[in-house]
Amino acid sequence: MSPNSRRKAIHMAAVAIFLVCICLPGVENTFHFAPPVDLMENDPTPLPDFSLSQVFRTFNVLQRGFLEKTYGFRKQLVRWQNMLDLFVLQSSSHYQTVIKGKGNWLFLAQENTELNVVEDYRSSRLFSARELARWVEVYRKRQDALDARGIHYLMVVAPNKHTVYPEFLPSQYNRVSPISRTNQLVDALQAAGVNVLDLRDTMLTVKKGALAYYRTDTHWTTFGAFAGYIEIMRWLTRWYPEFEPTIRGDYDIHITPGLTGGLSSMLALADMFPEDRVTFEPRTPRQAKEVENAVAPKALFQPTVVTETGDPNLPTAVVFRDSFAHELMPFLSENFNRAVYLWPYPSTPREMRTFDWGTIDSVRPDLVIDEFVERYFTEFPPSQRPGKP
Question: How is the chain split among helix, strand and coil, in percent rounded to 5?
Fold first, then answer.
């Protein structure tokens, strides 16, 4: 073959490869032959039926990532990109959603455009005295308003994984300050008389003898959650001394393979980061049962869950929660005649997390627990009026 013929053949092959690559996504969208990939992400909003009246809505759906998320082979490409970054280039930036630490530990990094959890851990920006005063005023007034209704109030702070296992973070992410915003706020709240339970020391104790947080997830294991439950119940014995004899319970602990961690799923690499699941199986049947939700609060992040034990001698609770309460709920629910679990959107620099007074006044609980993970202490929303409980 002459040099010109060889060059022409190479050019034709390159054109053919380019055409195949550019056509494959469209073919995949039609025939769906790509291998399945487990990628944790929100599904795109479906396109409305085409009509002139739906033009602007269609444009909004397209603008919000419809084409990006429905691109053929997208999930496979995301998987390959993360494999290249983590295992070949050894590249992991805190401006990505998930970073790989030492020993195949994964950490949440850029949770959203407004919250970088790694920067929060590094404590590069602390609260000003004015910001602290505004936060304290909100929670102090909230507790006072509940006290006036004869309702106990307890804040519960679940630690970030970064706080409990900093030794597995990449070495370049050092702490800028030994004091964190959580330190500032917890100290200020306690000084103001707000009932707040900080579980950071508890988790540091758990990790000495067990795995407190999953390597491939942002949440605590059942070991961590159970220890958090014990501390919550110990606090509540100040108001309910009858809780003391039943705090620990009796469980069989099972360690089984097959956990699909949320962080590894966000990378589409769950199969490359295997991990065991921790479960606590009660030796006596649980009394609390999930019941139909008669409480209908305004739209929240996740549906409300209501449990009942059927024991009128036990108190009633309303729990404002986030994802960290998922492992707490089976333990907590056993101690209440009725427990109502509300999952609002977290606080942002624009708006505080909803504290649903309507549900509280409807349920009329004996106790309100306000649980959230420490990274959700954000900048105080400028539009929020601190004087409003």
Answer: 40, 15, 40
Question: 7: Cβ–Cβ under 8 A, 6 or more apart, which residues?
Answer: none
Provide mean pLDDT across the span 159-179.
94
Judged against a pLDDT cut of 90, whether residue 155 lies above it is answered with yes
Identify whether the C-beta of residue 306 lies closer than 8 Å to the C-beta of residue 290: yes
Is the pLDDT at 26 greater than 70? The verdict is: no
Strands (E), 260-348: 276-282, 289-291, 302-308, 316-320, 338-343
Q: Give the Cα separation of 342 and 340 in Å (integer).
A: 6
36-45: Cβ within 8 A, 24+ apart: 37/75, 37/76, 37/78, 37/79, 37/268, 38/260, 38/265, 38/268, 38/270, 38/271, 39/75, 39/78, 39/79, 39/265, 39/266, 39/268, 40/262, 40/265, 40/266, 41/69, 41/266, 43/69, 44/69, 44/70
Q: Which residue has the higher pLDDT, 382 or 185?
A: 185
> What would the pLDDT profile of 303-315 be if each residue is shown by its tens digit?
999 999 999 999 9
Measured from the Cβ of residue 255, the count of other Cβ atoms closer than 10 Å reads: 10
Residue 351: partners with Cβ closer than 8 Å, 6 or more residues away: 345, 381, 383, 384
**Contact (Cβ atoms closer than 8 angstroms) between residue 331 and residue 347:** no
| Residue among 288, 373, 363, 292 at smallest CA distance from 332 | 288
The owner of tokens 């590094």 is: 122
Residue 246, classed as helix, strand or coil, is helix
Q: What is the pLDDT of residues 92-151, one digit of tens each?
A: 788 888 999 999 999 999 888 788 899 989 998 899 998 899 899 999 999 999 999 999
Nearest C-alpha neighbor of 263 from the set 81, 96, 66, 85: 96
Between the CA atoms of 236, 242, 243 and 248, what dihedral angle is there, to the nearest 10 degrees? 140
In 3D space, the residue among 228, 229, 157, 226 whose CA is nearest the CA of residue 194 turns out to be: 157
Between helix 181-191 and helix 129-148 the angle, nearest 10°, is 50
**How much is the average pLDDT of 310-324?**
96
Quick one: average pLDDT of 143-169? 97
Q: How far is Cα 363 from Cα 295, in angstroms, rounded to an integer?
A: 8
- From 57, 155, 167, 189, select the one nearest 101 (Cα to Cα): 167
